Amino acid sequence: MSSASKDRPVVLSLKDVSMRFGQKTVLSDVSFNVLRNEFLAITGPNGGGKTTLLRIILRLLKPTSGTINYHGNPTVGYLPQKNMIDSHFPISVRELIRSGLMCRSNRGRRTVNEILTLTGLEALADQTIGTLSGGQLQRALFGRAIISRPELLVLDEPLSYLDTHFEHKLYNILEEVAADSTVVLVSHQMSTIADMATRHIVVDGTAVECPANHHHYIAPECNCTDCSHSHQN
Predict the structure, then answer these.
(1) Which of 21, 68, 46, 54 has its CA nearest to residue 231?
(2) How many domains does the chain have?
(3) Which of 15, 62, 118, 199 has the smallest number of CB atoms closer than 10 Å to its CB?
(4) Which has more confidence, 60 or 82?
């Protein structure tokens, strides 16, 4: 990490975080800081604890031990995985996107119509989310996550279900968002997004910062010349 990066204020800090479910330890001794205006990419193998770590970051789970602290009370936008959403809930695309405005923010919120245009959902604005394809619902959820211009944007597998056209548009939108927000991305398929990240953390039972830009998780080992560690499946 550069000295300039170290001078940035800390937005989120995790210290010695561990998580057990019964006798199974999913995460052990995870410690790292998230700095203001950085783009942090979290990757790792399936079952390595990425989703558990994300839920702890969002305070949806309380860790078995360790601490997590937000600094400066940042507003948070969250894109969950599609399977976390009840698509039968009777809410329209417009209403779903508008629900992102419930987050308090004084950073010049976007309008619902602006988000509908940005995500290409104008023609579907009044349809219920149950009528959408997987990619369309993903776009609506992304719109909800960014409408308030949150100070911290957390994205869980944002490329899921997206077609190639909107995937490339997503990169452009994220470049704009990342210019004045902190972004935490969790994904096993990094692709182009990896080049946008300023830091990479590999999660596989614990969390290890990796100085190399991994475009995808390499199993069973990462033997890149920049890494002094191996990531075991």
Answers:
(1) 46
(2) 2
(3) 62
(4) 60
